[in-house]
């Protein structure tokens, strides 16, 4: 017999768990912003801060041109559709955006979702079953993990970014019908770029498909910003790409899956977050289309983002900080100790810089850090101001020698 408890115990239990989260320093408070998103933001305490923690890589989130494009799309297509896509929720703007994403990524076709979380949640189950194998990087995004859970395929996990282990898992999955290797194109905690050239070679050797999640890459990785597949020169060798419209590509919300026509057609028939959830708002579809047209005609924003990243990475190291080496606009400034990372982020806030401290269990024990993210919207002056705040906080906390 399960022991029964009274209804008030349910609420008391929740409160106890919340209190425990607070005590363990794992409670996530929400900063309230009263302005648009941008290089700087105004918080509800009235202070203006340089923002170093948005996924606003191309600086489009609060941009005036985006606001205008979204108003224009709303004027033309209305506020919403009150329908899923297949009943009466598909407008010309959705079809145009799907085409624009396909051509931007170099894929045959694209399907839109309300979020990348839904794209990943709805991609595996329609395509793979118990005869198949999904081979997934150990640090893949939560939405990939959840999507895999919803699918009956056999699961194989390879150690993060470890090509020898990936090969071992491909061998272990050898008797499965279809095999698909799944990885984030870029991993958000370290800014690590997946080794897609090697992954594609292994996929060829073992007859596997390759799927990448490009949420931290679409719009700015690679010479013309197409993504990690362009960065690694494997455009045309990736089978499935998922991504978000909620980071570099405008920053509102929305997601997509791009692949061959047969894959996308199957998803339109069978993918549950697509079939049973409302169509992407026309203002977002229209604005995203404007974004992709802009990015296809000029790499200016992408170039500015990478120049800002190079500047910040080299200057922060000159100050004496340790960073995870790399080239991605995610720059983990390593502080190692959890309480120090917390104090450091708090001191940055007081000095006018918004950046997030991460510590165990979000990152491995002893790997606490302040993670910053560059944006094309930052000016060099703003970055230098932020660097000065890092220097001051570093000296005050005894982390820097001079
Ligand atoms: C942000 C993110 C997602 C979720 O994207 P949404 O569009 O916000 O749902 C999925 N995968 C990765 C790797 C991400 O970084």
UniProtKB/TrEMBL annotation:
<feature type="binding site">
    <location>
        <position position="141"/>
    </location>
    <ligand>
        <name>substrate</name>
    </ligand>
</feature>
<dbReference type="InterPro" id="IPR015422">
    <property type="entry name" value="PyrdxlP-dep_Trfase_small"/>
</dbReference>
<comment type="pathway">
    <text>Amino-acid degradation; L-threonine degradation via oxydo-reductase pathway; glycine from L-threonine: step 2/2.</text>
</comment>
<dbReference type="InterPro" id="IPR004839">
    <property type="entry name" value="Aminotransferase_I/II_large"/>
</dbReference>
<keyword id="KW-0012">Acyltransferase</keyword>
<keyword id="KW-0808">Transferase</keyword>
<feature type="modified residue" description="N6-(pyridoxal phosphate)lysine">
    <location>
        <position position="247"/>
    </location>
</feature>
<keyword id="KW-0663">Pyridoxal phosphate</keyword>
<comment type="function">
    <text>Catalyzes the cleavage of 2-amino-3-ketobutyrate to glycine and acetyl-CoA.</text>
</comment>
<comment type="subunit">
    <text>Homodimer.</text>
</comment>
<dbReference type="Pfam" id="PF00155">
    <property type="entry name" value="Aminotran_1_2"/>
</dbReference>
<dbReference type="GO" id="GO:0030170">
    <property type="term" value="F:pyridoxal phosphate binding"/>
</dbReference>
<dbReference type="InterPro" id="IPR011282">
    <property type="entry name" value="2am3keto_CoA_ligase"/>
</dbReference>
<feature type="binding site">
    <location>
        <begin position="277"/>
        <end position="278"/>
    </location>
    <ligand>
        <name>pyridoxal 5'-phosphate</name>
    </ligand>
</feature>
<comment type="similarity">
    <text>Belongs to the class-II pyridoxal-phosphate-dependent aminotransferase family.</text>
</comment>
<feature type="binding site">
    <location>
        <position position="371"/>
    </location>
    <ligand>
        <name>substrate</name>
    </ligand>
</feature>
<dbReference type="InterPro" id="IPR050087">
    <property type="entry name" value="AON_synthase_class-II"/>
</dbReference>
<dbReference type="GO" id="GO:0008890">
    <property type="term" value="F:glycine C-acetyltransferase activity"/>
</dbReference>
<dbReference type="InterPro" id="IPR015421">
    <property type="entry name" value="PyrdxlP-dep_Trfase_major"/>
</dbReference>
<dbReference type="GO" id="GO:0019518">
    <property type="term" value="P:L-threonine catabolic process to glycine"/>
</dbReference>
<feature type="domain" description="Aminotransferase class I/classII large">
    <location>
        <begin position="48"/>
        <end position="389"/>
    </location>
</feature>
<comment type="pathway">
    <text>Porphyrin-containing compound metabolism; protoporphyrin-IX biosynthesis; 5-aminolevulinate from glycine: step 1/1.</text>
</comment>
<protein>
    <recommendedName>
        <fullName>2-amino-3-ketobutyrate coenzyme A ligase</fullName>
        <ecNumber>2.3.1.29</ecNumber>
    </recommendedName>
</protein>
<feature type="binding site" description="in other chain">
    <location>
        <begin position="244"/>
        <end position="247"/>
    </location>
    <ligand>
        <name>pyridoxal 5'-phosphate</name>
    </ligand>
</feature>
<feature type="binding site" description="in other chain">
    <location>
        <position position="188"/>
    </location>
    <ligand>
        <name>pyridoxal 5'-phosphate</name>
    </ligand>
</feature>
<dbReference type="InterPro" id="IPR015424">
    <property type="entry name" value="PyrdxlP-dep_Trfase"/>
</dbReference>
């Amino acid at each position: 017999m399960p022991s029964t408890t009274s209804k008030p115990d349910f609420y008391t239990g929740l409160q106890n768990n919340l209190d425990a989260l607070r005590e363990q320093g794992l409670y996530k408070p929400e900063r309230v912003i009263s302005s648009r998103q941008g290089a700087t933001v105004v918080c509800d305490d009235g202070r203006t801060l340089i923002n170093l923690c948005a996924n606003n890589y191309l600086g489009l989130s609060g941009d005036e041109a985006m606001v205008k494009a979204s108003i224009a799309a709303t004027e033309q297509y209305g506020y919403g559709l009150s329908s899923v896509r297949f009943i009466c929720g598909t407008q010309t703007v959705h079809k145009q955006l799907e085409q624009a994403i396909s051509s931007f990524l170099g894929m045959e076709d694209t399907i839109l979702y309300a979020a990348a979380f839904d794209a990943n949640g709805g991609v595996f189950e329609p395509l793979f079953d118990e005869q198949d194998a999904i081979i997934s990087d150990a640090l893949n995004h939560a939405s990939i993990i959840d999507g895999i859970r919803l699918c009956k395929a056999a699961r194989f996990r390879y150690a993060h970014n470890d090509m020898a282990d990936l090969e071992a898992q491909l061998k272990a999955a050898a008797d499965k019908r279809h095999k698909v290797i799944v990885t984030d194109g870029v991993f958000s905690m370290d800014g690590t770029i997946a080794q897609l050239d090697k992954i594609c070679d292994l996929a060829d050797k073992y007859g596997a498909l390759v799927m990448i999640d490009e949420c931290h890459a679409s719009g700015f990785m690679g010479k013309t910003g197409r993504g990690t597949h362009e960065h690694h020169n494997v455009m045309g060798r990736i089978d499935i790409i998922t991504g978000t419209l909620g980071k570099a590509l405008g920053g509102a919300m929305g997601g997509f899956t791009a692949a061959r026509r047969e894959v996308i057609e199957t998803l339109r028939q069978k993918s549950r977050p697509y079939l049973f959830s409302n169509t992407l708002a026309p203002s977002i579809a229209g604005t995203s289309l404007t974004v992709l047209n802009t990015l296809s005609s000029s790499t200016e924003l992408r170039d500015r983002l990478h120049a800002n990243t190079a500047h910040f990475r080299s200057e922060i190291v000159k100050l004496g900080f340790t960073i995870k080496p790399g080239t991605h606009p995610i720059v983990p400034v390593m502080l190692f100790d959890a309480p120090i990372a917390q104090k450091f982020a708090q001191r940055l806030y007081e000095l006018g810089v918004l950046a997030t401290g991460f510590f165990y269990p979000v990152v491995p024990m002893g790997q606490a850090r302040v993670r910053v993210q560059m944006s094309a919207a930052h000016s060099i002056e703003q970055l230098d101001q932020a660097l000065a705040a890092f220097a001051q906080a570093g000296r005050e906390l005894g982390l820097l020698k001079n």
